[in-house]
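User: Sequence for Integrase catalytic subunit below. Tokens please.
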Amino acid sequence: MERLLEAEHGPGVVPLPSRATFYRLLKAVSSGRHTLGSARTRRSLAKQPDGMFGQLTAARPGEVMEIDSTPLDVLVVHDDGTVDTVELTGIVDIATRTLAAAVLRPSTKAVDAALLLARAMTPEPMRPGWADALRMSRSVLPHASLMALDERLAQAAAVPVITPETIVCDRGKAYLSTCCPMTSGRRWTGCRGTPTTRLASPTTPNSRSCGPPRSRRSPTKADC
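Assistant: Structure tokens for Integrase catalytic subunit:
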């Protein structure tokens, strides 16, 4: 910057602030624009709409569910003894705002997406050490009427069992894999019909199902 000013105006004509002040001013000017950051981030922000993010309305459980993965800003000890970050993958029901299932993995694979679907559609068994207050029979869920459908609910925890009709996901490798039941075209065992998978647009930032914990924006699925 100093060389540019001297070349255009001459040496000592335009005074410069201290280095610390200069960086504070630069940070204030470039805040939220990623001027010195990734060009990919700037392109993504440029495609962001000026209006508010929309909402997708679901009237019943399982009508629309979202599945996504996000890295966590924590370090954990893996099974092999190494210390590294992990990814949280979860599936959320839009109508009830229920986190139907979630897994922690070093990196999300197609098998993790399949595991989430299986856990969302099957009763969660009570585990040793859990309090009786966590049983489904102690909750407000219609336990008695559901017993005729699945006897496993007698020993299940108070976690809703939700069968998805439509799943919204981004274009992550784990969800586009041929091993993933959502996009492989295979019929799901135990489902009434084949759930629909809606892939988010690869270029529209506001069509992703969810962002990392650092971003608190609520995206829309209108463009999916």
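DSSP finds six helices and seven strands in the chain.
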